[in-house]
Design brief:
It is built from ten helices and four strands; from the N terminus they run αααββαααββαααα. By secondary structure, it is mostly helical. It has one domain. The two termini are about 30 Å apart.
């Protein structure tokens, strides 16, 4: 699925994709002394982790299980995953700090850090601008899609960084130190469903604001009233496919990588798999999720 989606992304916006990759390459050809030190430290730590994991990766008996805690809230809200909540709050804090720091250090002559962020933002803005047919909704859609992209990207990147993971066993919990990656919020279906449903509501709110309530409601019985059930099912299917796509790639992919890592635990292959899955596949899935959000909003805004 990942390969097909990558090709889809390149095809539908080929010019912007190559421009983005070309500019990113120009920025990263030369490294400053600090960047070289940071990269070297990261690679050394990765190598140490690879040696640490030699013959230590085990398949826990609770693989695939999710930590759940009961809280005094009604119905479906009464069960929470504290790991997902903690990691989500941590990522939100990082994003807020990055945004404040970026705004505080804006310069007319941008640094490489500012240029890199501006290229990502301009790439997303041009993508939204080319997709949204009504200029009034370009900026709001840009805010939504870019926020989703940045959060999901950081969340997915956790799948490539060794850290502390929590396993659920029959007799309690197990903490794994550097034998697995940090738990990713997008590996929890609840997170993905929340964002997918949010995109669905936002797209219809934009449509009501543009067309009016009556015209929006009339769209469900077009081109024929017989299509009303199919149109409703089609709209409800969007968040289902939107969320399950990301969950299947991140949640299911993480379990698959863990199993492959166990089979290759006598080598340094596990950390290579973590890096490929977390950095490459994670980036592609963040782009795909954001592009689908833009596409769903764009469809609702068509006259």
């Amino acid at each position: 699925m990942g390969t097909a989606e990558c090709v889809f992304w390149i095809r539908i916006d080929e010019t912007h994709a190559y421009y983005f990759l070309e500019e990113w390459w120009i920025l990263k050809v030369k490294f400053s002394k600090g960047e070289k030190i940071s990269l070297s430290v990261f690679l050394v730590v990765y190598a140490i982790v690879a040696i640490w994991n030699f013959n230590k990766i085990e398949l826990p008996s609770g693989i695939g299980k999710v930590l759940q805690v009961k809280v005094p809230l009604p119905s479906i809200l009464g069960t929470l995953n504290p790991v997902t909540i903690v990691m989500t709050l941590a990522l939100v804090t990082i994003l807020v700090y990055m945004a404040v720091d970026f705004k505080r250090h804006l310069k007319k002559i941008p640094s490489r850090k500012q240029s890199a962020i501006e290229i990502v933002l301009s790439f997303m803005y041009e993508l939204v601008e080319d997709s949204i047919p009504v200029e009034e909704f370009v900026r709001p859609t840009f805010y939504v899609s870019t926020t989703l992209f940045l959060f999901i990207l950081l969340s997915n990147l956790l799948g490539g960084i060794p850290g502390i993971s929590v396993g659920v066993l029959n007799h309690g919990l197990s903490l794994n130190l550097f034998t697995d990656t940090w738990p990713s919020p997008t590996g929890d279906l609840n997170t993905n469903v929340t964002y997918a449903v949010m995109v669905l509501f936002i797209s219809h709110i934009f449509a009501i604001k543009l067309k009016g309530f009556k015209a929006w409601l009339k769209g469900f019985v077009e081109p024929n009233p017989v299509m009303l059930p199919m149109n409703i099912i089609g709209e409800l299917a969007k968040p289902v496919s939107h969320s399950l796509r990301l969950f299947g790639n991140i949640g299911g992919g993480g379990i698959m990588v863990l199993m492959l890592s166990y089979l290759a635990k006598y080598t340094i292959v596990p950390v290579v798999l973590w890096g490929f899955f977390g950095f490459f596949v994670g980036t592609i899935q963040a782009i795909v999720f954001s592009m689908l959000a833009i596409a769903y909003i764009s469809i609702q805004l068509e006259q």
